[in-house]
Amino acid sequence: MQHGKYRFIVGFLVAPLALYAVFVISPFVQTFYYSFTNWTGISPEFDYVGFDNFEFLWKDDLFREAFFNNLVLLIGLPVFTVLLALLFAFLLNVGGTGAGVRGITGNGFYKLAFFMPQVLSVPVIAVIWSVIFSPESEGLANSFLGWLGLGPYDWLASPDMALYCVLWVLVWGSVGFYLVLFNAAMSSVPRDIFEAAFIDGASRLSTFVRVTMPLLWDTIQTSWVYLAILALDAYALVFVMTIGPGGPDNSTQVMALRIAQEGFQNGKAGYASAMGVVLFFLTLIIAAVLLRATRRERIEY
Amino acid sequence: MNAPRPYPRRVFLRRAGLSALAVSGGSFLASCASGGSEDDGERSGGGQEQTSENPFGVDAADPLHVVIFNGGYGEEYAKFHEELYTTQFTDAQIEHEAITDVRQQMQPLFNAGNPPDVLDNAGAEKLPISTLADTGQLTDLTDLWDTESIGFDGMTVRDTLHPIAIESAEYAEKPLVMNYALQVYGLWYDRALFDEKGWEPAETWSDFMALCEQIMSDGMAPMAHQGKYPYYIQQVIIDMAVKHGGHEVVYAIDSLEPDAWQNDSIRMAAEAILEIKNGGYMMEGTEGLDHIQSQTRWNEHKAAFIPSGSWLENEQASVAPAGFATTVAPTPMLDGAALPFDCTRVEAAEAFIVPAQAANQAGGLEYLRIMLSKEGAAKFTELTMAPTVVNDSAEGIDASPGLASSLALIESGGDNNWNYYYPIWYSPMDPKIQTAVGELAAGRISADEFCDRCQEAADETAEDPATQQRSRP
Amino acid sequence: MATQRRTGGDISVTAASHIVLVIWSFIVIVPFAWALVASTKTTREIFGDPWSLPADPQWQNFESAWDNNVGEYLLNSVIVVSGGVVLTMLLGSMVAYVLARYPFPGNRFIFYLFASGMMFPVFLALVPLFFVVKSLGMLSTYHGLILVYTAYSLPFTVFFMHAFFRTLPTSVAEAAVIDGASHSNVFFWVMLPMAKPGLLSIAIFNILGQWNQFVLPQFLSPDKPLLTQAVASLLSNQRYRADWGTVFAFLAIAMIPVIVAYLAFYRQVQSGLTSGTLK
User: Does some domain include residue C14?
Assistant: First the structure.
């Protein structure tokens, strides 16, 4: 046993925890407090109302619709983002021809290009895609599909399509980062392991599935959870890109948008805080479930 | 890895402990913040002798904090008003701020109890004004209304204002908000284009349909609208309904009367919009466009009419081609209309308030009085090409087509012009109405369904105990 | 090292790979390029004729952006984000390392405490946060923003670095301990270098996240605006004054430092990828 283990632990944790407690925990806790009041958000005066906000929330149809829309995102976003990022990581690192495990040519270019969406901030992405998704037949998406003999579609103006357009843009904006992440995780794995699998005659695909993925599992699991959280917290994109926002016909309404609308436009900050508390516990539960369900033994090497 | 443990519960229990701590901490904060926030009727600032030149007894030594929303109307006019203030109260220090994020910057000030003396509460991030009114955070403007106005001999401020401004200022029968600009709503078109084609805005519905047909055969879409914000096309529906059924239609809506939205006039107006949509007269793809995109198309003559308000000309100033004459036309009359053609909704917008907790309320009131002076109002119109709520303030100004046609409609409509307030009074209800409007304008629901959905939203609002019910007239 | 003959299967896999990758490249580059080109167009062209090149490149959009203080905002953002990311990575890795490698009572609790920070919509906590920052006298200051940015980036950083530290082999650390290294020495001289690819990718993400953050500075730094906060204001202002050309010019300028940072870091990540076996 090393000396000073606990001193080390404390020493390393004190400063970050203090910073975190002051700037993050304390405001969050105060928000929990506000959820039991009828605070308007713009006045220092308010009353304690107990669980009224939560009771009202239980019956709130619009919040329920938002919740179900978030569920769609919750399933779609992690699945498609992780799959695509893994696919590209696979292709870039193992898709090359020739001896052993070789990356594909043009590797560098692809890695740079795929990262570009990350560079744009969310409102910008929203503007760009809403122009691409213009329902006019000269809109980019429609004219492109027009060559293929499809469309034109209403995209964001259609209550049936709008949510999936939002999902698509979220995926589009996320893949780049997870690609970089998976690449980095893969690089921590010593090359010998891959070479060994090859010598044993494994195909590229089975190497990837049987060797790479388990070693990456911690990273995949973490990414999954984080994307799930993103899906539950989606706000800025929906706010800027959708009709209404939240439409058409509430088809893109999401919980975070409801919170902003109630808190900022309707002067019901107490109610919005209650929604925030519910969202928080929901996220916590879902994250815990996901972590449990995807848990595996750590592979030591 | 350790054996599984019920982490969520353990975490929750610890967090419950933290919450208990927070509750006591939070109430401490609340008691700190709420100290001295009562509006005890005493006006802050002032203290000098109240004379006819200085009716509020403003002390030049007291600083004045003015916050302007730097949007469509800019901030130049405010600087002029501030100059007028410092001319009268020499050496007065004015802190002038022109911002776009009203809520972000004002919310903390209101919570801390030191809001500005004058706030132009406008823009996408404005504070919810009915909440401010209901919680006693706005200064009563009655004294301002009763004071002598500057530049109009022998008239009180109230006398100089358009009746709609007086009406829209009131919450629980007290004037609390000074709405400064008049906004005229209608169907906008390019006068130059219409002159060239020999078209005229139609007065009756059947004439309007015929005009649409004519425009279509010329290769242009008769109407576009700002699909992303159903608020614009909603205007047209309600306007046609009011013109048909009279002002009672919106009185009932604003008063949350049962079946207010099931009114036949509203149903007819909804049918009318469906006729336009189903007749193919709506510009293709308009449902997905935002205001800049659709208005830009309109500037490019892809559509003949677009619903909007008198800010339109200014907003599209850098986009519209030379020679484009932005002009307003009233909405057409449905069969059996109670009101004549020449009237429309006129809104008093750009809300200026003097918060109750401001440090220099007297200065704030005086500043508003200066804004409402003949000189002050004229300058605003000159700089923004928008009418103010002060009657005849635009005399002698070289009006653009947009301004000229707006003023003409304010004039010709007279008492027939109307306004409505439910989006401000019952803000949770408005998005639901807009959702229904969006579906109607896209032709996805019928007129009956539209009325049902709006009525449902209204009924929900009426039943919500948190709603402050108001009534009209 | 074994070699394999190039097979037909090999070539078709490669070809298919290229096709897929090219398609995605297209999907990714087109929107990005559109935004860049838009910075040289007039508002009418941007929305009237979105997919054509400008008739007359409007370089004055950039002048207009400069007149609107884009240079000052850029500097503010660079200072805050540099400080913020450095502090975040330092503190975040310290916490993540301790939590990943040292079991002790309360370990899981602290981990969840940090992780749960990501699960709460930040904008709800803004008003209380404002008062906290104000009471510390840190409104509209560089250090105030840096500390707040760090605090809010800790959850994500700790969460991800934790996973990275857990995938590192224990053998090397054990060897160092046997050689008599202290805990902090092991951390700084052994584990941190091994986690470099992870550190770099999380650092990049933090750079992006902090750079693009606009909600926090809107509330906490009204007098010392950051670039993205200015952009967000401009964008919301577009409801009232259509001047999209300047907005996109601002955006183009805002993109540059991030791309530069990515390129600089990226070569590091790249070298991490080819370093292969660890000693």
Answer: no
Which of B296, B302, B313, B314 should one mutate to test binding to chain C, selecting the residue with the greatest count of C CBs within 10 A?
A: B296
* Contact check, Cβ <8 Å, C237/B316: no
Q: Distance between CA atoms of B434 and B448, rounded to whole angstroms? A: 16
Phi, psi of C205 (to 5 degrees): -65, -35
User: ipTM for the complex?
Assistant: 0.81
Task: From chain A, pick out residues whose CB is under 8 angstroms from the CB of C270.
Answer: 108, 111
This model's pTM is above 0.90: no
Tell me the CATH architecture of domain A60-293: Orthogonal Bundle (1.10)
Nearest CA in chain A to B423: A266
Residues 6+ apart with CB under 8 A from B347: B164, B168, B179, B182, B183, B185, B309, B419
Report the SS3 class of residue B204. Answer: strand
* Spatial separation of the C-alpha atoms in residues B327 and B317, rounded to whole Å: 13
Asked if residue C37 is part of any domain, the answer here is no
CB-CB under 8 Å, A33 with B128: no
Q: Does B26 contact A247 at a Cβ distance shorter than 8 Å? A: no
pLDDT at A149 (0 to 100): 84
B387: nearest Cα among B356, B423, B360, B350: B350
What CATH code is carried by the domain that includes residue C201? Answer: 1.10.3720.10
At B34 the pLDDT is 33
C129: containing domain: 63-278
Structure tokens at A175: 């893949």
pLDDT digits (tens, 9 = 90+) for A156-191: 889 999 999 999 999 999 998 888 888 777 766 666
Any domain includes C46: no
Q: Residue B443 pLDDT > 60, yes or no?
A: yes
DSSP reduced 3-state for A132: helix
pLDDT at residue B261, rounded to an integer = 95
Subunit contact A91:C110, Cβ cutoff 8 A: no
- Cβ of B23 within 8 Å of Cβ of A33? The answer is yes
Task: Chain A: give the shortest CA distance to residue C225, in Å.
Answer: 17
Could you give the number of structural domains in chain C?
1
Question: C240: closest CA among A24, B311, B67, A224?
Answer: B311
| Per-domain residue ranges of chain B | 43-175+354-394, 185-345+420-463
CA distance B329 to chain A (A): 26
pLDDT at B16: 35
Mutate to test the interface with B, among C64, C170, C240 (most CBs of B within 10 A): C240
Tell me: the pLDDT tens digits for C74-101? 889 999 999 999 999 999 999 999 998 8
B246–C contact, CB cutoff 8 A: no
Residue-wise pLDDT tens digits, C233-276: 777 666 556 677 787 888 888 777 777 877 777 666 555 444 33
Nearest-by-Cβ selection for A16 from C154, C205, C231: C154
Structural domain boundaries of chain A? 60-293
Give yes or no for a contact between A145 and A153, defined as CB atoms under 8 angstroms apart: yes
What is the CATH architecture of B185-345+420-463?
A: 3-Layer(aba) Sandwich (3.40)
Q: How far apart are CA A283 and CA A74, in angstroms?
A: 10
Indicate the CATH number of B43-175+354-394 among 3.30.390.80, 3.90.190.20, 1.10.10.60, 3.40.190.10.
3.40.190.10
Residue A283: closest CA among chain B residues belongs to which residue? B8
- Quick check: C242 and B315 CB within 8 A? yes
pLDDT digits (tens, 9 = 90+) for B306-326: 999 998 998 888 889 999 999
Q: Which residue of A has its CA nearest to C202?
A: A181
Question: Would you call B300 and C242 a contact, using CB atoms and an 8 Å cutoff?
Answer: no
Given pLDDT bands bounded at 50, 70 and 90, which one contains residue B95? very high
How far apart, in whole angstroms, are the C-alpha atoms of residue A256 and residue C119?
A: 11
